[in-house]
Write a structure and sequence with these properties.
heterotrimer; A alpha/beta (about 375); B alpha/beta (about 575); C alpha/beta (about 375); A: 14 helices; elongated; C: alpha/beta; abc type-2 transporter like fold; 5 strands
Chain lengths: ~375, ~575, ~375
């Protein structure tokens, strides 16, 4: 009973110390909102404004029709027609056009006569990912156009067509991928910084000694340091989830219980890592540096922006140590797939394991590094 | 009268804005004369550093006029800075550069011509005794050596005006004396003018003139003797009659309305009375011996205390405690037995031993880096000993259960408290951490607020408190759970003389109540408050005993009545001679 | 007496030497300047790839015959896919749900029959759309295989496939469509931002914290000398970091450098100065390391990452965000670096971006000159 009251006093003190300091208040509020906006709006692989330059010496109607389709697609916008192929190339060189279409003068005639007509597409590969995506959009337009032309000019129809269905995200909006990911990312950043600084801040101020000479035992101190991180993390998670659903309109299809259980385990593992860093560092400076040393690889290897499957095998093994990897699967599955707890078991237990081991390690480190 | 090298007229400087505005300097007029050492004296927070920075053209005044060496400091800061030398607090050294590299940097920055460097370096290094250490990193120097290097850097170009901001804080007495010698040599040989701020009142007497600053206002500027002049006939020493506790006598004297100040000083008390007040010769009652007050020459410190205190001021509240029974007194509660602590190759504590009995005030004295804090942290269980044995109340605190730790109180260096929490929140937290809840907790919090006069500050953020208030709060927090043993690490460092007197009065009251107090300090004169003490230097105990025993041990023809500082210097120089 | 110019040179020299000695003695600056670039480059170079490979593709063939075997064979032969055969859609869908598959090709048992009949035969394609980008790339590869198969099928039927429009696609500058080729040059911008802004702002904040700035300010040192004294050493350090990164990019990651090295060096130098100026500006605002570090990350590192066009296409961001990207110096440098590495010295791209950086540098310097003074509060 007494131990519990002591613990409550400690937790209360941790909250006060955290929330009464304008700097740490800022860390809790500023970066999450800025990151949410920057990532939510800025981090998208979708293209909606690909500048297209056209060289079209063809006087026929069909090239016009094709261009109208390109223009009508939300992804492209025509920046203008040029008079020579050389000019076209220059526009690509100078990054004024990402896609350049070059027709031949007999484009329409050929098509009308049932012959095939070549169309040259030049893409700026300086960002080859965007180039590939733009090319995909163009191909889709062409397939429809082809079928229409074939039907109109009595050409043979295609023997087989692809009926593509994208599960969980029919329009392949990459915001649906990125925004739920931000839940995991921000929790990682905020909770890690809060916990990593917690012991280091007291060390620097000299109050950690004060704490150690009180009858509080090490596990009470550790729990007292963990709880604020956990609670603040859960609070921020709720806020970001609400913004994702209400503002960015990402569908939330699965069970909230499964999501929060996963987030809790995730937070536990971050708190463990954060306390480990904090226990090793003497100054806040070192703690912050340690946090970033963990953060950067953790984010890159998590599959937040790029798939883990594309990484070399050794790097993929490394990513198994990254709690964010599991958290991202959970968040995305619950949001988009409507997953429930039973489907996520294999994501839960590694985080629980990481959390348990890191908390034990933090406890050991805090005991063995008091000076 | 010489020319004026620094003139402040109606200078006002505020910090912050809106409600949080504090006025650091409030209409100060000050003139520093050429070729003199002027001391800027005042308690913590009086505005000394602000004044120094204004004089160095590092700050702009909000109102008023500042002229340095005939140049307007507001209009032409660089012209001022090329003619002054300035040493900020903490000496402004690059700790990751060597002594020589620091000198080179400041020589470059001050534009010392290359041709003159070698000779000037040699002169300064010889003068400061740093010549053998020119390759050493500044961060690896002792506090005293850093201070002298900082001074050397400020003196490189023989400035016309030297500004020193608290140059002697945290520095051992030997280094302090050497600093003064160097400063005076500059004044004598080069006609340099010096403005120096300090919190040590004994240093004020070494200044040609003293400017007394209090709460942003100048109380006066004159020769130290002029300040003490009005106290003539009001200062006395009092031999403590046999069988009477000096500490208790001091406490009783201080409680008298007639007495402005009472201070334990060796075997006697120094007493300052308010003007035209009778001396309480019959304080010990009709049966006791009459007190024999002998008039002495007033010192600056006496004047300072009387100037800053007012006669109607209530003496500080003493913690209300039950006196201890006499029979428990001889029990040894703290024991250190050949304790060694190594950090890598460096041996911070070299096998020291001592014992502390219940109800004693036991002091660990020494300069910064003597191993006091390391010893202290080992005793509190914050640091394992590399070798030897330690016990506190029969336990090794490192492995002690929570119950054992519940019996000690601890006050860390720099009064470490949660700066973002209010005074009340801090007290409540520490009470709860020591297992006090509900009614008991609020009783103790009330006790602390009342006994330490913290109630008006209860809702203030701890970080905003003055150092003296922080000290009181830290003291109160350490006492929340009524510990039997109290550890106080540098409890008076940086605190002004008035707060220090209050602190010792409280500590004495605790000791009277049977609480054992272990205290570290680098103020030599505070040794007199201890029942017994050890003097440490470089991880070794140089002397152990009562203050009297230690002083008597160093009696020699030059110092027939050695002060604790004399004794310390003698002990250290003897040790160095032996090495 | 000394000439003022000589004094000034001497002060600057003293500052630069001091700063340099501190850099050499402080392991953390060396770490940020040399170890961090290498680590980041390895992490990104190996960890970040947008090129799908070994896509785990479920081939659901309900009825195995020549046609379906033929189509399946086309997928098996593609270097992008790692095929898994299924007879039924259920287990394949289950596998897709459990992320054991990235996509499914579903040929129903009437596939061959439908091929013979008029009207196209449907080929079911299921991808997991959660990672939209990946799904799109997978879809693109599937489309490619399908198209190849169509042509082959038409030839086998004895006629040429007449897809009316024959797309001749060329991905310029990066024909192999290797994402590393554009990620690694962009990384140089990130790394230089880190060195220039983060390191510089924290180092100056450290001087405030340790009280050395106060001692320095009380000497006759002038503000331009303080600024230059900080800029020069960190500029040199940053350029070393840049050279190291470029060397790794060229030799370890085999990114081609089509433009001239001199142009790259010039552009990097200008960008380095802009990054340093931001670091200085931050340190004027924030006098402690904690705040300086936070601000540096939020206003320099994060935007350099997301808003520079390093990975994400600026043109596709909402208009207000696009406006913000103009304030991100890394945007200009990323454009130059990607062009120089992959396309060559294309001055119409390089010059305006250089100009924008120069303008930013001037503005930053003007603000710094206004804000910086020798008063410490």
């Amino acid at each position: 009973m007494n131990a519990l009251l002591q613990l409550l006093a400690l937790i209360r003190k941790e909250f006060l110390a955290l929330l009464r300091d304008p700097r740490s208040r800022f860390v809790l509020i500023g970066p999450p909102i800025i990151q949410l906006l920057v990532f939510g709006y800025g981090a998208t692989f979708d293209l909606n404004d690909v500048p297209v330059a056209v060289y079209n010496p063809d006087r026929g109607a069909l090239s016009r029709q094709l261009l109208a389709r390109v223009e009508g697609s939300p992804a492209f916008h025509l920046i203008g027609e040029v008079e020579s192929e050389g000019h076209l190339r220059r526009l690509v060189d100078e990054r004024k056009a990402m896609l350049a279409l070059s027709f031949r003068s007999d484009f329409s005639r050929n098509l009308e006569q049932g012959r095939s007509a070549p169309l040259q597409a030049i893409l700026d590969g300086r960002n080859s990912n965007s180039a590939l995506i733009a090319l995909g959009y163009l191909r889709n337009i062409l397939i429809e156009f082809d079928q229409e032309v074939a039907a109109r000019h009595n050409g043979p129809p295609l023997p087989a067509v692809l009926k593509v269905r994208a599960w969980h995200n029919a329009n392949l909006a990459s915001r649906w991928f990125i925004v739920p990911g931000i839940v995991g990312l921000l929790l990682l950043v905020v909770t890690l910084v809060v916990t990593a600084l917690s012991i280091a801040r007291e060390r620097e101020a000299g109050t950690f000694d004060q704490l150690l000479v009180t009858p509080l035992n090490p596990w009470q101190i550790l729990v007292g340091k963990s709880v604020p991180g956990l609670l603040i993390g859960l609070l921020e998670a709720t806020f970001i989830i609400a913004v994702a659903v209400l503002w960015f309109e990402v569908p939330l299809r699965g069970s909230l219980g499964a999501l929060y259980f996963g987030l809790l385990l995730f937070l536990l593992s971050i708190v463990g890592v954060g306390l480990m860093i904090s226990a090793i560092s003497v100054t806040q400076q070192q703690a912050l540096l340690g946090a970033f040393l963990f953060l950067i690889p953790a984010v890159i290897l998590s599959g937040f922006a790029t798939p883990i499957a594309n990484m070399p095998e050794v790097v993929q093994w490394l990513s198994y140590l990254d709690p964010l990897r599991y958290a991202l699967v959970i968040v995305r599955s619950v949001f988009l797939e409507g997953a429930d707890a039973s489907l996520l078991l294999h994501q839960y237990w590694p985080m629980a394991l990481i959390g348990g081991i890191s908390l034990l390690a933090a406890d050991w480190l805090a005991r063995h590094r008091m000076y | 009268m010489g020319d004026l090298v620094l003139q402040l007229q109606g200078v006002v400087r505020r910090f912050g804005s809106g409600e949080a505005t504090t006025t650091a300097l409030d209409g100060v007029d000050l003139a520093v004369r050429q070729g003199e050492v002027t001391g800027l004296i005042g308690p913590d927070g009086a505005g000394k550093t602000t004044l120094m920075r204004l004089a160095a053209a590092l700050l702009l005044p909000d109102e008023g006029h500042i002229e340095v060496l005939g140049v307007d400091a507001v209009a032409e800061p660089v012209a001022v800075q090329s003619r002054i030398g300035y040493m900020p607090q903490r000496f402004g050294l690059y700790e990751d550069l060597s002594v020589q590299e620091n000198l080179d940097l400041y020589a470059d920055l001050q534009g010392l011509p290359s041709a003159r460097r070698a000779a000037r370096y040699d002169e300064l290094m010889h003068m400061t005794g740093l010549a053998p250490f020119r390759k050493r990193l500044a961060g690896k120097l002792s506090g005293g050596m850093k201070q002298k290097l900082g001074l050397a850097c400020a003196l490189l170009r023989e400035p016309e005006l030297l500004l020193l901001d608290e140059p002697t804080v945290g520095v051992d007495p030997v280094s302090r004396r050497e600093l003064w010698q160097i400063v005076y040599r500059q004044v004598r040989d080069h006609g340099m003018s010096v403005l120096l701020s300090t919190a040590y009142l004994d240093e004020a007497e070494r200044c040609d003139r003293v400017a007394l600053l209090h709460q942003g206002r100048l109380l006066g500027i004159d020769c130290p003797a002029v300040f003490s002049e009005p106290l003539k006939g009001d200062c006395f020493v009092l031999e403590v009659p046999p069988g009477v506790s000096a500490r208790r006598l001091q406490r009783d004297l201080q409680a008298q309305a007639a007495i402005a100040d009472a201070l334990v000083e060796g075997e006697h008390l120094r007493v300052v009375r308010w003007p035209d007040q009778p001396l309480p010769t019959d304080l010990l009652g009709a049966q006791g011996p009459a007190l024999d007050f002998q008039p002495v020459t007033p010192r600056f410190e006496d004047a300072f205390i009387r100037l800053l205190r007012s006669p109607d001021e209530q003496p500080p509240q003493m913690p209300q405690l039950e006196p201890a029974s006499a029979d428990a007194r001889d029990e040894v509660v703290i024991r250190a037995d050949h304790v060694v602590r190594r950090f890598g190759d460096f041996v911070a504590v070299k096998g020291i031993s001592f014992e502390v009995r219940q109800g004693e005030v036991f002091g660990l004295l020494g300069a910064n880096g003597a191993g006091k804090s390391t010893t202290f942290r080992m005793l509190c269980g914050l640091l394992p000993a590399s070798d030897g044995h330690l016990s506190v109340a029969g336990h090794d605190l490192r492995h002690a259960a929570a119950q054992a730790r519940a019996r000690i109180g601890y006050m860390a260096q720099k009064f470490s408290l949660y700066a973002n929490l209010t005074v009340l929140q801090n007290l409540r937290f520490f009470a709860a951490a020591y297992g006090l809840h509900g009614k008991r907790q609020s009783e103790r919090v009330d006790w602390a607020l009342d006994n330490f006069e913290l109630r008006p500050l209860a809702r203030r953020n701890t970080g905003e408190l003055s150092l003296g208030h922080k000290q009181r709060l830290a003291f109160a927090a350490a006492l929340m759970h009524e510990p039997q043993i109290l550890f106080l690490d540098e409890p008076t460092s940086g605190v002004d003389p008035i707060a220090r007197r209050e602190f010792w009065a409280r500590t004495n009251a605790l000791a009277e109540a049977g609480i054992t107090v272990l205290v570290t300090t680098h103020f030599m004169e505070e040794a007199n408050y201890c029942d017994r003490l050890v003097i440490m230097a470089e991880g070794e105990v140089l002397a152990e005993g009562t203050p009297r025993e230690i002083r008597e041990g160093e009696r020699d023809p030059q110092h027939p009545v050695p002060s604790m500082e004399d004794a310390f210097i003698a002990l250290v120089s003897r040790r160095e001679a032996a090495a | 007496m000394n000439l003022p110019g000589r004094d000034s040179r001497r002060r600057l020299h003293g500052m630069v030497r001091k700063e340099w000695l501190q850099i050499l003695r402080d392991p953390s600056s060396i770490a940020i300047a040399f170890v961090l670039p290498v680590v980041l480059l390895f992490l990104f170079g190996y960890g970040v790839s947008l090129d799908a490979k070994d896509i785990r593709l479920g081939l659901v063939i309900e009825h195995m015959d020549d046609q379906s075997r033929d189509l399946a064979g086309a997928f098996v032969r593609s270097r992008f896919f790692q095929p898994h055969y299924y007879r039924d859609i259920q287990p394949a869908q289950q596998a897709l749900t459990e992320r054991r598959l990235d996509g499914i090709i579903w040929l129903r048992n009437n596939f061959s029959r439908r091929l013979q009949q008029p009207g196209p035969a449907p080929i079911g394609v299921l991808v997991n759309g959660i990672d939209a980008n990946q799904a799109r790339i997978t879809g693109g590869y599937i489309q490619g295989v399908w198209f190849g198969w169509l042509e082959k099928y038409a030839r086998a039927q004895g006629h040429k496939l007449d897809a009316p429009v024959q797309l001749e696609q060329r991905v310029w500058f990066n024909p192999a469509v290797n994402s590393r080729y554009f990620l690694v040059p962009g990384l140089i911008a990130i790394i230089m931002t880190l060195i220039g802004s983060l390191l510089t702002s924290m180092v100056i904040a450290r001087e405030w914290e340790r009280g050395t700035m106060e001692a320095m300010m009380a000497t006759p040192l002038r503000i331009p000398e303080v600024l230059a004294g900080k800029l020069i050493p960190y500029f040199v350090l940053g350029m070393f970091g840049m050279l190291l990164t470029v060397a790794l990019a060229l030799w370890l990651f085999q990114v081609p450098l089509h433009g001239s090295f001199a142009t790259l060096f010039l552009a990097s130098a200008l960008f380095m100065l802009v990054a340093l100026a931001m670091g200085l500006l931050i340190s004027i605002v924030a006098k402690n390391q904690f705040v300086a570090g936070q601000i540096a990350i939020i206003v320099t590192f994060l935007p350099a990452f997301i808003l520079s066009g390093f990975i994400f296409d600026i043109g596709s961001m909402p208009a207000p965000i696009q406006v913000i990207t103009y304030l991100v110096p890394a945007r200009y440098f990323v454009a130059i670096a990607q062009t120089l590495f992959l396309a060559g010295d294309i001055w119409p791209v390089i010059l305006p971006n250089l100009g924008a950086m120069a303008l930013m540098l001037l503005i930053f310097m003007a603000i710094i000159r206004r804000k910086a003074n020798k008063r410490i509060a």
